[in-house]
Amino acid sequence: MIRTCVTSSGGLRADLNGDGTADEVSPASAPRAGTDSGLRITFGATHGPDTSVTPEQLVGDRGDHPVTVSAAVADFDRDGWLDLFIAATGKTWGDDPIDPAVSELRLGPFSSRGRGQSDHHVDLSEPRAAGVADYNHDRYPDLAAYEYDGDGQHSVRARLGGPKGLEGKQTASDLPYTSGAQQGAVPTPDSMPAPSLRNFYPPCEEKGKG
């Protein structure tokens, strides 16, 4: 099995789809590398060209013409396979938050079309950005989500990782990590926590070095 590791650019290298070849999650561009703004996943191939996809290409039919697609990749349930969290949200109408067309954890391994072993709904309030965080400093990666609460108010909320991955509803354990957030003029606002992949995975060995 290919060992999951963090690349020198801050992305992840792992076998995402279980075919025995190395795949890579490229980090996003500024302002918060490692979250969903500019995230790209490249699935390696033993024969033929690699397949490179963006979160928009992983949503599926239910996320038709979304305004915002948010994605985060980590082994949230620590079963040895990286999982895909993905949310697709349409255009805001008025002051009330809208329900996302898609907001779910897809347990790995997952395919280049975004199909996981099973899908689990994660109840979020109009998610506009997502990323991997380390809120409670245990062995499980956590999810940070930038959400619109309505009436011009935004929050960053945690969903702590655990043996089930991510809970569908926010729990009492998540609440201490909720914080107010400024309105995001960019896809991933500065109020999101810095990415924490290196807290969970070792650095990849550079080519030519032992």
Automatic annotation (TrEMBL):
Residues 1-37, 110-135, 154-210 are annotated as: Disordered. Coiled coil: none annotated. InterPro entries: Integrin_alpha_N (IPR028994). It comes from the Bacteria. Residues 116-126 have a biased composition (Basic and acidic residues). Residues 1-10 have a biased composition (Polar residues). This is VCBS repeat-containing protein. It comes from Streptomyces fagopyri.
